[in-house]
Amino acid sequence: MSIEQSLADAFRPEERNKGSALAAKDVVGISSESDTHVRAFIKGSTACKVTLTAEDVASPSFTAECSCPPSRKGILCKHLWAVLLKLEGKESDFIVGKTSVNKVDVVPSAASKMRNEFKKQQYEKQKARAKEMRREKKKADSIPQVSFPEPVQEALRYFRGNGFPLDPPEMGELQNARRLLARVFHPDKGGTHDEIIALTDNFEVLRDYLNG
Predict the structure, then answer these.
(1) Which of 115, 120, 147, 196 is the most buried (most CB within 10 A)?
(2) Can you count the helices (H) and strands (E) in the chain?
(3) Which residue in 153, 54, 148 sits closest to 97, CA to CA?
(4) Are 30 and 121 a contacting pair, CB within 8 Å?
(5) What is the DSSP secondary structure assignment for residue 105, as one 8-state letter?
């Protein structure tokens, strides 16, 4: 019984077609072979290693493993099919009586696990951020839009530019922003006299507006 009859159903048609093309190009090499074990490789720019293993010579099934990315995802790949065709062409005893093939489950490496965990964490952060942005937008949409006088808008832009978006402005938040910025702009902390004056001027504009 040929492998087309006994094993074809285990492979996707496209993988068989690609594997047949590889076999025809004579890029399959057998590095070691016995009744129960075969090690092979696919020559080319994307060289792959293939391993076939049977429990014993009479076993109708065997496990197959390839180093290519599709195989690591659980697909019986074109490289495996190409190696089987190569073995059939040389009348290898390994494939005699074989009617089923099992894919080896590849255990993720520690580095792979770390990458996957990092991707998962980034995804969760992005999802949380998107949720927060939707919540903020909903909150902003629920707040009546107020047309502020130009000096007030300028003062709001000043505080927003320094990390304190006062939307809408409230006295408690304004006083807290002034207190924190005063520490940053104080000359003893590396600030300047002009920065303190600008902070005070913008604070007073908003304070007077809120107390209006």
Answers:
(1) 196
(2) 8, 5
(3) 54
(4) no
(5) P
193, part of any domain: yes
Binned at pLDDT 50, 70 and 90, residue 134 comes out as confident
Per residue in 26-72, pLDDT (tens digit) is 899 999 999 999 999 998 767 899 999 999 988 999 999 999 988 88
User: 94 near 87, Cβ under 8 Å?
Assistant: yes
C-alpha to C-alpha distance for 76 and 12, rounded to whole angstroms: 8
**If DSSP codes are grouped into helix, strand and coil, which group holds residue 77?**
coil
Predicted confidence band at 169 (pLDDT cuts at 50, 70, 90)?
A: confident
In terms of domains, do 84 and 160 share one?
A: no
What does pTM read for this prediction?
A: 0.50
My answer on whether 73 and 164 are in the same domain is: no
Domain that holds residue 48: 3-103
The verdict on 11 and 96 lying in the same domain is yes
| Count of domains for the chain | 2
The amino acid present at 11, given as its one-letter code, is F
Shared-domain flag, residues 10 and 90: yes
